[in-house]
Amino acid sequence: MSFRKTKIVCTIGPAVENLQTLKQLLISGMNIARFNFSHGD
């Protein structure tokens, strides 16, 4: 079994507005989600 030594950190903002996009990030290898609320209304 091999492990990656790097982590993929994603900033979640307005571009990720639906669950399908978030699922695709997880499938692609996202390890950590950082939420950016500075664009909120």
Automatic annotation (TrEMBL):
It is an enzyme of class 2 (transferase). One of its GO terms (molecular function) is potassium ion binding. It holds the Pfam family PK. Its EC number is 2.7.1.40. Gene3D superfamilies: Phosphoenolpyruvate-binding domains. Keywords: ATP-binding, Glycolysis, Kinase, Magnesium, Metal-binding, Nucleotide-binding, Pyruvate, Transferase. The keyword Metal-binding applies. Pathway: Carbohydrate degradation; glycolysis; pyruvate from D-glyceraldehyde 3-phosphate: step 5/5. Residues 4-41 form the Pyruvate kinase barrel domain. Belongs to the pyruvate kinase family. This is pyruvate kinase.
